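Database export, one record per block. Field names are fixed; values are copied verbatim from the stored entry.
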Amino acid sequence: MEASETYEFVKSLVRQAELDLDTDTLVNTFKELDWQVSGEFNYMRMDVQKVESDGSRVRLYYKSYDPSGPFQNLPDVSKIQVQLIQGNAVIDELIVRFDG
């Protein structure tokens, strides 16, 4: 698969997570894929990338956190960033943020 196809696939997963206000399926999908993991990989934080045969890569960074303070009960905030990278240049990028 080419990096642009991989990028479009990942964008569709992210858009579905945004529509569902749920990142569990996104995280579970990446548990099954053979991507390089940087740092933590769990339901709160994920930084993964896939390098294609032409050297281009797709990177996904996901973070979820609880913005609640004392005596507050707020929904978790999810932030997801997907990048299509060629060399050192970001060719395309999707940034999504939602509460849920």
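Remark 1: The radius of gyration is 14 Å.
Remark 2: The first strand starts at residue 36 and ends at 41.
End of record.
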